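User: My advisor, Dr. K., asked me to get a structural model of this assembly before our group meeting. I'm new to this, so sorry if the format is off. These are the inputs:
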Amino acid sequence: MSSECIFCKIANKEIPSNLIYEDENVVAFNDLNPQAPVHFLVIPKKHYASLNEIDTNETFAQIFSAIPKITKKLNIKEYRTVINTGESAGQTVFHIHVHVMAGRNFTWPAG
Ligand code: AMP
Ligand code: ZN
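Assistant: The format is fine. Below is the predicted structure of the whole assembly, which you can bring to the meeting.
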C-alpha cells in the first residue's frame, strides 16, 4: 500500500469508486473519464507502480484471469485492453492498471 496512491485508496475503499468486481487479489472499477461506452480498470490490490515493477507471474495471472470473468458477466465478447507504462506512453496513475474498453469500434494502429 502506498499512502498517496489513489488506486490503493480505491482498493482499500478509502475513497469511493464504481466497483464492478472484487476478489482476494484484484478489483475492477469504472474509469472516471471513460473513453468508450464500457471502460473499466483492473488493478491488483497490492501496489505496483507499473508493469515494470511486477515481480511474480501470479500477479499477471490474477489480473488477466479476472478480465474474462468480468466481460462475461457484462456480456461483452469484444474489447480492447491497454496498459500504459511510463509518462510518454500515457501513464498518469502510477499503480498498474489494465484498461478494458468496449462498446464502440477501435482503430489500429493506436495513435
Ligand atoms: P493511465 O493514463 O493509463 O494512467 O490511466 C489512468 C486512468 O485512471 C484514466 O483513464 C483516468 O480517467 C482514471 N482515473 C483517475 N482517477 C480515477 C478515479 N478516482 N476513479 C476512476 N478512474 C480514475
Ligand atoms: Zn497503489
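One thing worth pointing out at the meeting: The chain has two helices and five strands.

User: Perfect, thanks a lot.
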